[in-house]
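Is this the right way to post structure tokens for a design question? Let me know if I should format differently. Anyway, here goes:
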């Protein structure tokens, strides 16, 4: 049996890693009153192009439900800058804490998230590494997984692997990539993603347990309804302390899975709006480029006399 095979019994469970992860609707108000900081560690704004959520709407949801966010837009920091500006300048939002981050689409299409404790550090990283290597046509940063992780750490970021077993953008889909080349350089593994199948989340939990890696959870929200449905929490007073405590293994996750029958129509509507506005739609680009890459891969393998899967 494969070490990441998920059994029927495991699929029925709602707690994992000695109760560090629970499939349960989070009550951020209750946790905040107990002295915990709560963060949705994987979110998107309209800057990601596959969402129409304005930073202001996002912050209103945070205030209403008493949780904080790590903003992780695709290959851009425009959303993070706008969110930080609103938090700094408007009284209504000044209690919301922000972990500025970015979700990077690497050359192999696998995603890497890099978190920072200050917007200035994220901006420095983006301007020096991401922006010069960004390919707008392919919606990719022309750096491979190893390079992306290396640069993220060099600039003082916390490197996280989101939805590692996702068939489209997970790092574990890269067959030829030996995890020993990068596993010691990553800081966190995302073990709960509200938009990922339960079996793939369980595989991520097993992977984190195998390598004794700290865990994070988030919604991967692109629509307002799902914001805050999954949170990572620990007892901290600042974003820096929060990230440091995760690194020490001092964090827990509460979360719910999103119901795809609601998400699919919302995403389709969102992307149709962006199509009308003339903006790029990253999901279409992902599919197109993945098909091209697979065709090229098969042709090159065939020419070398290697086995075609």
């Amino acid at each position: 049996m494969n070490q990441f095979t998920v059994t029927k019994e495991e699929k029925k469970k709602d707690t994992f890693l000695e109760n560090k992860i629970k499939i349960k609707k989070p009550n951020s108000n209750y946790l905040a009153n107990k002295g915990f900081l709560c963060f949705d560690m994987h979110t998107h704004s309209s800057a990601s192009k596959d969402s129409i959520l304005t930073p202001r709407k996002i912050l209103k949801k945070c205030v209403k439900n008493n949780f904080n966010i790590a903003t992780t837009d695709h290959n851009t920091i425009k959303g993070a800058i706008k969110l930080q500006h609103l938090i700094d300048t408007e009284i209504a939002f000044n209690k919301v804490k922000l972990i500025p981050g970015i979700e990077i689409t690497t050359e192999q299409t696998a995603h890497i998230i890099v978190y920072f404790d200050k917007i200035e550090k994220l901006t420095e990283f983006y301007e020096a590494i991401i922006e010069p290597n960004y390919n707008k046509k392919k919606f990719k940063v022309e750096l491979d997984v190893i390079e992306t992780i290396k640069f993220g750490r060099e600039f003082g970021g916390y490197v996280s692997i989101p939805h590692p077993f996702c068939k489209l953008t997970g790092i574990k889909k890269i067959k030829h990539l030996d995890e020993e080349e990068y596993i010691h350089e990553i800081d966190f593994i995302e073990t709960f993603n509200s938009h990922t199948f339960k079996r793939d989340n369980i595989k991520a939990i097993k992977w984190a347990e195998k390598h004794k890696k700290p865990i994070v959870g988030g919604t991967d929200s692109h629509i307002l309804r799902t914001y805050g449905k999954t949170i990572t929490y620990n007892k901290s007073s600042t974003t820096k302390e929060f990230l440091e405590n995760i690194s020490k293994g001092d964090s827990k996750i509460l979360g719910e899975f999103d119901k795809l029958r609601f998400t699919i129509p919302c995403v389709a509507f969102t992307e149709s709006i962006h199509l009308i506005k003339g903006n790029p739609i990253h999901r279409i680009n992902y599919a197109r480029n993945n098909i091209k890459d697979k065709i090229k891969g098969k042709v090159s393998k065939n020419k070398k006399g290697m086995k075609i899967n």
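Format looks fine. Someone answered above. Worth noting: The CA atoms of residues 185 and 302 lie 34 Å apart. The chain is about 40% helix and 20% strand.
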